[in-house]
Write a structure and sequence with these properties.
Layout (H helix, E strand, L loop, with lengths): L1 H58 L2 H11 L4 H32 L4 H6 L2 H7 L3 H6 L3 H22 L6 H18 L22 H29 L2 H37 L3 H38 L6 H8 L3 H16 L4 H26 L1 H26 L4 H6 L2 H20 L4 H21 L3 H18 L5
Helix pairs in contact: 1-3, 1-5, 1-7, 1-9, 1-10, 2-3, 2-10, 3-5, 5-8, 7-8, 9-10, 9-14, 9-15, 10-11, 10-12, 10-13, 10-15, 11-12, 11-13, 11-17, 11-18, 12-15, 13-15, 14-15, 17-18
Length: about 500
């Protein structure tokens, strides 16, 4: 029970920390979409996609590898301090090199040079990022609390300084600059975990092969997401189409954090369980994670489809009508991405099977890029959305086929877990579609649909006596009894 409470607590803190990185722009999106327009959003999206290539190469596989290794060395102060210095030195070398190459690219080739130079702050932020260490130590509270003030500052800056399309550079500087400040703000907490390793000389390339194995799938996953935006710009020559894709992707990625954040919390635990040969514990973590995927992923998928016709015009304003179709298509990403995140993080990475993970991701990435080339000329942003969904489904099939072959855990059980959630989700979708036909395009209508849809979903799950809902109700009752001294009978 104590272990479950720690997982829940870490999940809440980890979710809030990651969510803040995206939720603040989403809260301000109705204002920004009107102030900057689809073209301004498209320029930001394109230039960000380019700097992201350099960020990916500067990180390599150190984020995942670092979290895993620090998780294993949690109880070894000297060992984790040495490993931290090894990984940090490695990242300083790779990020410094990437920063120099990016500046050369901007000077010689970049479109929108002024905006591109400002995006370099993302590389500076990567240079000082140590969040992977705190993840490995399962210290999500400090990361979250320190960043709340930074993100609130984000909101204030937007409404004070950004009012028209010409303020695009201010918007980009704010996003990139505050990412840098957010990473800087958690550095002082390192002293609580690091000890002196006098005489130790960092060996940054000692685990280069393993880091590279983790880098390739991470690169493929992020690269083909960035390639979607780059290919839309190159093929359609339309900043607006990139804007439609960016807005849809932003909503989906924000909601996905709720579904996938549990995997970040459980990675150190799964790695440690496997290292100590506690396979039953590891499998238990995985099945709970898959159940959680269906529990949250299903209503998010059906919910976005059911509300898209109201959400887009109310949330983004005029000029974003094509986002309705793009968003509906990309909502299909929730389940495959979440299943892939669970399988890769808690099985392939925890057990050291990075090569198979890489193989699956490269196949899915190739499918995505090929379909982009085929579909974007005809369907534009919609085509990029379809290609993304197809790529993730292919990755899911490849990974689960491997797991099934070696019978590490039951694949059929993953999908039998979904029955109650799908039933509840379909009933919720029907209610939302009915409401969308009869409610006006107003903010209160959207709020009512979200609240009503959630109520329908959870009522059906209560009737079905679903595991997470019953656990939540039981936990709430225990809290009330403990807090207010309520006794049974």
């Amino acid at each position: 029970m104590k272990q479950n409470k720690k997982v829940v607590k870490n999940y809440i803190f980890n979710t809030s920390y990651q969510l803040l990185a995206i939720i603040v722009p989403l809260v301000t999106t109705p204002y920004i979409s009107r102030a900057l327009g689809a073209d301004g959003i498209g320029i930001y999206s394109f230039t960000y996609s380019v700097v992201s290539y350099f960020v990916i190469f500067s990180i390599l596989g150190t984020a995942t590898y670092g979290s895993k290794q620090i998780g294993i060395l949690q109880d070894d102060p000297i060992g984790r301090s040495k490993k931290f210095r090894d990984i940090l030195t490695f990242r300083l070398i790779t990020t410094g090199s990437a920063l120099v190459l990016y500046i050369v690219y901007v000077m010689l080739f970049a479109k929108h040079k002024g905006i591109a130079y400002i995006q370099a702050f993302y590389l500076l932020a990567t240079l000082i990022d140590t969040s992977w260490f705190f993840t490995g130590m399962e210290d999500f509270r400090r990361i979250a609390l320190r960043n709340y003030a930074i993100k609130l500052l984000n909101v204030a800056i937007i409404f004070i300084f950004i009012h028209k399309p010409e303020d695009l550079w201010k918007y980009v500087l704010m996003l990139a600059g505050l990412t840098f400040l957010g990473n800087l703000s958690i550095i002082p907490f390192l002293k609580d975990y690091l000890v002196s390793t006098k005489g130790y000389k960092p060996n940054p390339f000692a685990d280069f092969r393993v880091i590279l194995q983790l880098f390739i799938p991470a690169m493929a996953l992020q690269m083909y997401e960035m390639l979607d935006k780059t290919m839309i710009d190159v093929i359609t020559h339309s900043a607006a189409q990139n804007g439609y894709y960016e807005q849809s992707n932003k909503i989906v990625k924000m909601a996905l954090i709720l579904v996938t954040a549990l995997n970040t919390v459980l990675l150190p635990k799964s790695s440690k369980a496997y290292a100590e040969n506690r396979i039953d514990n590891m499998q238990d973590f995985m099945y709970k994670s898959y159940r959680f995927v269906w529990f949250l992923g299903t209503p998010l998928m059906f919910g976005i489809i059911g509300t898209a016709n109201v959400l887009v015009p109310v949330y983004f304003g005029k000029g974003y009508e094509p986002v309705v179709q793009v968003l509906s298509i990309m909502s299909l990403l929730f389940v495959p991405i979440a299943i892939n995140s669970t399988t890769s993080t808690q099985f392939f990475i925890s057990t050291g099977r990075q090569n198979i993970y890489t193989y699956c991701v490269l196949i899915g990435g190739a499918v995505n890029v090929a379909l982009n080339a085929l579909l974007i000329p005809r369907l534009m942003a919609n085509g990029a959305g379809i290609a993304s969904v197809a790529g993730e489904v292919v990755i899911m099939i490849c990974m689960l086929a491997y797991v099934a072959k070696y019978r590490f855990f039951g694949i059929s059980k993953i999908f039998t877990l979904c029955a109650k959630y799908v039933v509840a989700g379909v009933i919720m979708l029907g209610a939302l579609m009915f409401a969308a036909q009869h409610l006006p395009l107003r903010a209160w209508s959207l709020a009512a649909m979200i609240a009503g849809g959630a109520a329908v979903y959870f009522i059906v799950l209560i009737i079905e006596r679903e595991y997470f809902v019953l656990y939540g109700i039981s936990t709430a009752k225990s809290f009330v009894k403990k807090k207010f001294g309520v006794k049974n009978g």
